[in-house]
Amino acid sequence: MDGSSAAPGARDGGARPAPTPTHGGYGEDLFDPGHSGEDERIDYGALAYDEVSRARLRALGVGPGWRCLDVGAGTGTISRWLADEVGVDEVLAVDRDPRFVQARPGGRLRTMTADITDPSLEPGRFDLVHCRFVLMHLPQHAQVLARLAEWVAPGGWLVVGDALDLATADSPHAAYRRTMAAMWQALRARIGTDVTWVTRYPRLLHDLGLAEVGAEVLLPPLTVDAPITAFWKTTWLSMREALLAGGDLEPGELEQALDYLASPALADLSPGMITAWGRRHQA
Fold first, then answer.
1. Beta strands at 221-222 and 268-269: parallel, antiparallel or unpaired
2. What's the rounded Cα separation, in Å, for the pair 167 and 97?
3. Distance CA 80, CA 65 (A)
């Protein structure tokens, strides 16, 4: 997960040119799905953002009779909600590693192990295509976004979400601010993560021919017991080696930032999420 309204850079966010990612895939060297606690880390992020995602999907009318595609399903919180609580007819949860998603008897929730950048991937047509915290990690995000739009059935919706950091560069807490900047830089170097473009989502969806385009932004407040705070803590701990190896932090700054997340003095806004949506014209 990454988010920045400007390219993440050295120290307090100075711009750097985008490097070539040093590893293939989505950061398996940083976030190994087989590592104990990785599912819990992902779930902290889901707990922080699922409520707004669900509210948006309900507002768009998702319900019984719909066929849904959940791209980058993670631990499957949205997929299971669609299948178990909303009662849609079908959910296909696609992920490079869907081990945390449990299929449902009768085929209402199915999983597919797939790389969304594979040009041969053709999952079908769906009334809802939902994709959250995926495209920001892909250098070919424009091409993949166009393919997602092609998988939307006539009259259906494409809903995409990615990280957006509008607040941490102005944080008065230096260690927190610099640790966030170091994290974005490490993600950019290791994975290729880039969210400098995500505020263009409404225009991108419009240019793909979608109608009724809209967007909204959520910036969760950081509080000691909030899921989003636990998400950043566990993310930094998972990335500790990369954060310290990057040279962007002074000795002890990561520990100071971690202490800040557990402190009663914690008073900041988290990096947030932009959600955008558009509708495929009826045939």
1. antiparallel
2. 32
3. 16
Q: Alpha-carbon torsion 19, 25, 29, 33, what sign? A: positive
Running DSSP on this structure, what letter comes out for residue 17?
A: P
Could you tell me if 250 and 181 are in contact, meaning their C-beta atoms sit under 8 angstroms apart?
Answer: no
What pTM value is reported for the model?
Answer: 0.87
End-to-end CA distance of the chain: 36
Q: What is the dihedral of CA 110, 111, 117, 123, to 10 degrees?
A: -20
Q: Which two tokens stand for residue 216?
A: 């909204």
What is the assigned CATH class of domain 38-279? Answer: alpha beta
CA distances from 174 to 181, 191, 223, 254, 256 (A): 11, 25, 18, 11, 9
**Which has the closest alpha carbon to 94: 124, 70, 130, 118?**
70
Separation between Cα atoms, residue 122 and residue 104, nearest integer Å: 22
Q: Please state, in angstroms and rounded to a whole number, the distance separating the CA atoms of residues 178 and 194.
A: 18
Condensed to tens digits (0 to 9), the pLDDT of residues 139-183 reads 999 999 999 999 999 999 999 999 999 999 999 999 999 999 999
Output phi, psi for 279, to 5 deg.
-115, 135
User: Cα–Cα distance between 14 and 201 in angstroms, integer?
Assistant: 24
Structural tokens at position 74: 């993670």
CA distances from 249 to 6, 177, 261 (A): 19, 10, 17
Reported confidence tier of residue 38, pLDDT bands at 50, 70, 90: confident
